[in-house]
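Q: I have two molecules that I believe assemble together. Could you output structure tokens for the complex as a whole instead of separate predictions?
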Amino acid sequence: MKAAPFKYVLAQSLEHCLELLGEHGEDARLLAGGQSLMPSLALRLSAPALLIDINRVQEISEPPQSTPDVIRLSALTRHADLITSPTVKASLPLLHRAAPWIAHPGIRNRGTIGGSLALGDPASELPACAVAAGATFILQSKSRGARRVPARTFYQGMFRNACAADEMIVAVEFARMDTLQTGFKEVARRKGDYAMVGLAGQAKRSGQRLTNVGLSFFAVGDYPVLAEPICQAIEAADSASQAIAMALDVYERDMQVSADLWCSSQAKKYIGRSVLEDVIHDLYQ
Amino acid sequence: MTFISDQQPDTGLNIKLQVNGQPVHAQVSVRQHLGDFLRESQGFKGTHIGCEHGVCGACTVQVDGRAVRSCLTLAVQADAAQVFTIEGLSDDPVVRALQDSFVRCHAMQCGFCTAGMLLTAAELLQAQLEPSRDEVREYLSGNYCRCTGYESIVNAVMDAAQTLREARGE
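A: Yes, here they are, computed for all two components at once.
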């Protein structure tokens, strides 16, 4: 359980980091919280030639920033900060609600939002939250500067995404929404284990109708996707019970669920029903 | 300080940190994790290495005031940090109370997971002294006890919380 040899550089600044990424590309890995990368090194599932430690890069260590339009989280925002930050609690209720489900306290103290979003583990919470909330990722490289990629198009396959080898996620932005309702549910064998099925959702509520519904399942496929037909079914309903009935109908008919090593697709699909029902209840709270 | 291990991947780098309140200067291989550094080079064998990929929580130590898995942190990353292992925390009132309660409630059992349990539970009790049993279980969910003695461990944390509340005059 020891990592294969690698070279190590402590990045001094964002510029330094992007320079190194530009030079080494796929031979390099960014070391942020290390809560997924370090296990993968220990198990020798990956053996990069170079580790670029970004933990002391000031530009990506800013506290959550709030403007009239968006809330911006720097890449090095730790999962534990999502629980304790007053800005996140007030303006990003979905992340605040999802964060306690991420692994365990010792992991949340180190793990970062940028790392979790960039890795895009199919069973992880934050990528699904970003997709559900319609977040925007800010990617940056030395040669092409910064660009903005919507979370909903960022993920492209199992551990595949729009981030090029010389690029990194420097921040993530969420549109500010008033009267935001959120729902989050995850089923795992043990609290903090990889989800068997999970669902992140948010919506705006006016009376008995929900609009701007964003729902994203996780641990049911290669990467988190917006469950669009289900969102539309919920938006067409005018009560919680109708929304649940219509959403479950679409779910039963259309939702594709893949098995993993521990849970069959039939079991996941069965669990997903009650998860969906609970989340819609939450959206109507 | 700039760290670049350029020629040989296993080149040692110099780090300066505080371990259990004492200044430490050391040269470490860049791929050595903090747990191995603390045990092998510093002799703090209270930190137990279990799974070495972040699952079991036995290697939990405190870095800059937060409980972290020492197997998922490189020793070079602890440069300039304040690191505490169980050896350096037995005088801390919360850890002391937990240790006494672990003895009283027979929560130690084989002892392998104990240091990690104590440091994780201490973080919980530092944040709040009135946790429910469910909150204790949830906070400790990332620490495995292979004796499966969770019931007495939760008893001990509840007992320590009560002791600390009484000491605070409640």
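A: One point stands out. Chain A has a mean pLDDT of 96.
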